[in-house]
Amino acid sequence: MERGGPADLERRAGDADPVLRRPPATPIAWVPDVELGLAHWLYHGRRLGQIGRGVAWWLGDWLRYGNARFGQKYSRAAHVTGYDPQSLMNMAYVASRFPVQRRRPQLSWSHHAEVAALAPDEQDRWLDLVLEQRLSVRSLRLEVRTARRVAARQAAPEGEPAPAGDPSVIVCPNCQHAIRPPAE
């Protein structure tokens, strides 16, 4: 019979229980070396989920610390972590745009990454909307892009060149006159 539930297992993580002392994970597999009961299996699943959701934040914070202390060392960090330099730069950028107290633990790092380039008040507005409407990362990306297009259309007078990347605007190749669809 198993002792206690998952909360009890977390409290005893440092105990002599071999299942909890040595995680059954390698860089390419999760294989326990003993039979697990349901509580132990759930404990490992919770830990793996926390690790998966936290790793981009942890690496971003680690990189920011290293950059501040040692200067930009993305090539060295890439060698040490196995991530490519661009991914590491993205992690550091997102971590720099969200102080720990503004990060939403209920949301993924990717949700934060989608709004990282915005002003802090806009980031908060979008992240609140994600929580309220339970938006996926893909839905958030589409909503942000749509809002940017609408704002760009409203800000640009008729006949002005179209904002780069706005597929709803037709631009004459000869005179660059922009034809925008009617506002929604």
Task: Quickly count the helices.
Answer: 8
Number of strands: 4
State the secondary-structure class. mainly alpha
Unreliable segments (pLDDT under 50, ≥5 consecutive)? none
Question: Spatial order of the strands in the main sheet?
Answer: 1-2
Global Rg = 23 Å
Roughly how many Å apart are the termini? 63 Å
What does this structure look like?
The protein has 184 residues and is mostly helical. It has a domain at 1-97. It is 57% helix and 4% strand. The protein is built from 8 helices and 4 strands, in the order H-H-E-E-H-H-H-H-H-H-E-E. The model has no long low-confidence stretch (mean pLDDT 83).
Name the descriptors.
8 helices, 4 strands, 184 residues, two-stranded antiparallel sheet, two-stranded antiparallel ribbon, mainly alpha
Give a quick summary of the entry.
The chain has 184 residues and is mainly alpha-helical.
Secondary structure topology:
Layout: H1 6-11, H2 18-21, E1 25-26, E2 29-30, H3 38-70, H4 74-81, H5 85-97, H6 109-115, H7 120-133, H8 137-155, E3 170-171, E4 178-179
Antiparallel strand pairs: 1-2, 3-4
Helix pairs in contact: 3-5, 4-5, 6-8
